[in-house]
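Morning run. Coffee first, then this:
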Amino acid sequence: MFEFIRTHQRLMQFLLLLFIFPSFAFFGLEGYSRLTDDSGVAKVAGQTITKEEWDAAHRQQLERMRQAYGNQFDSKLFDTPEARRAILDNLIAQRALGAEVVASKLVVPDQALQQSILQIPGLTKPDGSFDNEQYRVLLAAQGMTPKGYEASLRREMALQQLNAAIQTTAFAPKTVADNLSNLNDQERTVQMLNFKPDAYAAQVKVTDDMLKAYYDKNGKRFETPEQASIEYVVLDAAAVAAQSQVTDDDIKSYYQQNQKQYSTEEQRRASHILIAVKKDAPAADKAAAKAKAEGLVAQLRKNPGEFAKLAKADSQDPGSAANGGDLGFFGRGAMVKPFEDAAFGLKQGEISDPVESDFGYHVIEVTGIKPAAVKPLEAVKDEIAGEIKKQIAAKKYSEMADQFNNLVYENGDSLKAVADKLKLKIQTATGVARTPNPAAGAAPYNNGKFLAALFTDDVIKAKHNSETVQVAPNTLVAGRITEYKPVAMRAFDEVKSDVQKAVLQQEEQALATKAGQARLAQLQAKDDGAGFSDAKVVSRVKAEGWTQEAFNAVMKVDTAKLPAYAGVETPGLGYQIFRVTKVEQPKVVDTARRKAEQEQIASALSQQEALAYLGYLREKAKTKLLKGAASVSADDSAK
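And here it is:
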């Protein structure tokens, strides 16, 4: 449910193109007015974007990427001047779009806003009505109020409306799409002549000097990697919660204060017959409708079993008449007030007198009752204890985090002090390198920031504790190296057989390539199909079994005159010559794929038009980069 609301708040996801594709010239420095001495980092439509807003957007982006990529996320790749600049461009684009929404007087009707909110999962009661209480709880957990959230959602929906007006108008001309699809479908009939490296093994003479030269030139291939054995301690919410004591009195008090959370309200099942009459109808019409309803009540009290039959025949509620008037189970707040009061005042099987509402007159029969129920304390005791521990831990974490940091620093030669004081376990790991190891998964030590703090001279040489690093929200890690093995070159004699194998392959490959290139020159001068393999058909949609190098060579060859030749060297496989003898379009066209390709082209064009439109809006909003933008970029570059 939280993710759904976050999704609503980011309806302009296409703006992340700024972050993913920062190479677009549209977002370059040349697109802005010259730097001014104004405060902040940018000014759009007269509004200033502050450095604090920029920093907050950057932190949010890093957190999104961290959640998306987990332990594979390296913040250094994204914490760069270019990435920060892309985020600023994103903020500028949103401000420019927002200014255009206001200028164009775009509004989102209350009905559209309500419909969007009603789609949030988990906010529907069993009777199908909207759960306002859960809605408020959900927003409060994220520090929002319904009023604030709805205002934000309304703005974002207006932005989406503006964006859709541009993107949905793009289309791919059929001629362009057909030409591109024709290129995609084009089939080339190809034969191959392969010069395999092992065919030249007998011609290779490997000397000791060649081996030594290869060993010296390719030293990194024969290194043992740097690695360390470490100790580390972790302070996280689970560690804090484990030390939080919860008494039976605490649990009982929480249960009493939050009993509604463990209760289900009484629900009623009812059927009704509606004799419809408008609220403002003449008195005579109302009297006639009431009289008809009273007649039905009289009939039903004589023959209660005919309720469903009469409902099908006489009820004017199209939603329930066909079901014999059945409305299913519902709780309080689901029906209009007069109907609710009557339904909750009847006994099961009892039939009401006519009940007037804004819709007309209802004859109601209660057909089922689910009484209100409260889960007993014993059934929810563990759940409550866990919740209280979370709350205590949230308050206690900041205090323990300060202690953790101080103890790690003040007792720099050991982790024992921090482990004993805060009751943490000293954990160990071996084979730890400077970069995260995918095999280590989500282990707390397998984090880029922590490893950067661990592999420093102070930690490696002086055997000091690392600095404290936050590797995830409410998760701190500190460690020390107990054994360190630097990068080391394996002795020549130890790897001589590997070197000899590599040199032999290298020389064989060189001879195969030389022979293949010589043969290619002959074939280009005079066609000769001798020695080539059986013909195969290849196209851009049928490239199975081809290496990328070979496929590229075949598809790039000039086919103005056939047969045409191309040659390519593939390391480890030798040299291949390709003889293209025929180029044609397939007789059967995949219409479904062509339609999909046309849609892809239209999508790409719509993105281009959206970017161009953003450029226009940026200029219209008189966008200026301010002095703060240049100073922050300079600071980043100096890091």
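The chain has a mean pLDDT of 85. Good start to the day.
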